[in-house]
Write a structure and sequence with these properties.
The complex is a heterodimer of chains A (115) and B (112). By secondary structure, chain A is mainly β. Helices cover 0% and strands 53% of the residues of chain A. In chain A, β5 and β6 form a beta hairpin. The N and C termini of chain A lie far apart (41 Å). In chain B, 36% of the residues are buried. Classes of the chains: A mainly beta (115), B mainly beta (112). The interface between A and B is medium-sized, with 22 and 22 residues.
């Protein structure tokens, strides 16, 4: 079945470091891909998305490129800030059996950024 | 501002009691979802509804029930049949199409 695999955390970086969080997926067909962010005690917020191969999603300095050949959607940011400390979830969405779309989430990767 | 409101933020109940978690949205979204999140884990789908008066079981529906009498509201009842109900519960909604979810801020349920 469809699945999403993220790198295990926690990831600990110093402020202004480069961030990469790896995400690979398995899916039949052509899913849409998403990154969500969850701050402590809060719900998830949609960070960025890409709907087809080679699309690049970007938001707030974060970006990810839909790579069909490697089935990957790695999240990157050039210079992280302390305020980026959160849990990041990779997700895919495919048409559901009963209509609509079914979303599958990865296990999440916790990021700590030190000042 | 449009969004999803979950209430209460924290909920304590005694073992064996049913409890209902509220989820209200003013985004005019057709689809709504309930997820459960346990510490250090991803999200698991409990129930979802694509239209009023219709809902489907997700991956872990046992011990839970829902209703969808209004487009804006999708309450979740955690029954005494749920063996391990202590968790963080997240409600989400989505518009037609494949544009991602809007989440509420969650309800943390603790059963003692």
């Amino acid at each position: 079945g469809d699945s999403v695999t993220q790198m295990e955390g926690p990831v600990t970086l110093s402020e202004e470091a480069f961030l990469t969080i790896n995400c690979t997926y398995t899916a039949t067909g052509y899913p849409s891909l998403f990154w969500y962010v969850q701050y402590p005690g809060e719900g998830l917020q949609l960070l960025l998305k890409a709907t087809k191969a080679d699309d690049k999603g970007s938001n707030k300095g974060f970006e990810a490129t839909y790579r069909k050949e490697t089935t990957s959607f790695h999240l990157e940011k050039g210079s992280v800030q302390v305020s980026d400390s959160a849990v990041y979830f990779c997700a895919l969405s495919t048409p559901g059996n009963t209509g609509g779309f079914k979303t599958i989430f990865g296990a999440g990767t916790r990021l700590f950024v030190k000042a | 501002d449009g969004g999803i409101t979950q209430s209460p933020k924290y909920l304590f109940r005694k073992e064996g009691q049913n409890v209902t978690l509220s989820c209200e949205q003013n985004l005019n979204h057709d689809a709504m979802y309930w997820y459960r999140q346990d510490p250090g884990q991803g999200l698991r789908l409990i129930y979802y509804s694509q239209i009023v008066n219709d809902f489907q079981k997700g991956d872990i529906a046992e011990g839970y029930s829902v209703s969808r009498e209004k487009k804006e509201s999708f309450p979740l009842t955690v029954t005494s049949a749920q063996k391990n109900p202590t968790a963080f519960y997240l409600c989400a909604s989505s518009e037609e199409g494949d544009n991602g979810y809007t989440f509420g801020s969650g309800t943390r349920l603790t059963v003692v």
